[in-house]
Amino acid sequence: MTRKHYDELTPAARKRLIVASLLRAGASVTLLTAVYYTIPLDRPLNAATWIRFVLGLGAFAAVIVWQVRAILASDVPRLRAVEAVAIGLPMLLLLFASTYLRISRDAPDSFSEALGRTDALYFTVTVFTTVGFGDIAPRSELARILTMIQMITGLVVVGLVAKILLGAVQTAVRRRESEGPATAVAPDGRNPDTPGRG
């Protein structure tokens, strides 16, 4: 069996690959959003909330590392990068939205209006995109601190993570081009000409 590079695929095979990638990305966004709208977020705000928030940021970082490795190993790194963004960005936004919602439910005067799930997600997206309509604003010190953390995290994600993902795509493309034509692949997915790892 041979594994063909994207450029060597027929137009129909390319289309199937793109559709499959977009379906996986859409399914990831849908699943993450469904989880956000169904998990219980009415517990009181306490130290456990902040531990879960920090663990969520750690999980986001782990997902990015895993996605970078997947991009580097992929024969279709650009499509893999699209999937990485489709998983990582909603995960980060929904983490902040969940925390804003918990703050609003615990202390309703923390924002200019009480937040529901959609309101919290809307506020999160306006902060991330730097639109800032001003219709929902943080009022308490805690809400403002978390909003500042999101602003800084957003800058890091847009700048650093985008650079890392783009670098991984470029590295994978260069590796693929240096390999030349498609290589034979064993049924288990390994190149039979490459010595096994001990």
TrEMBL record:
Keyword Transmembrane attached: yes
Species whose genome carries this gene: Pseudonocardia hierapolitana
Key words, A-Z: Membrane, Transmembrane, Transmembrane helix
The organism's taxonomic lineage, starting at the top: Bacteria, Bacillati, Actinomycetota, Actinomycetes, Pseudonocardiales
Region (Disordered): 177-198
Highest taxon of the lineage: Bacteria
Name of the molecule in the record: Ion channel
Gene3D superfamilies xrefs: 1.10.287.70
Record InterPro entries: K_chnl_dom
TM ranges: 21-39, 51-72, 84-103, 145-166
Matches recorded under Pfam families: Ion_trans_2
Ranges where the Potassium channel domain occurs: 92-167
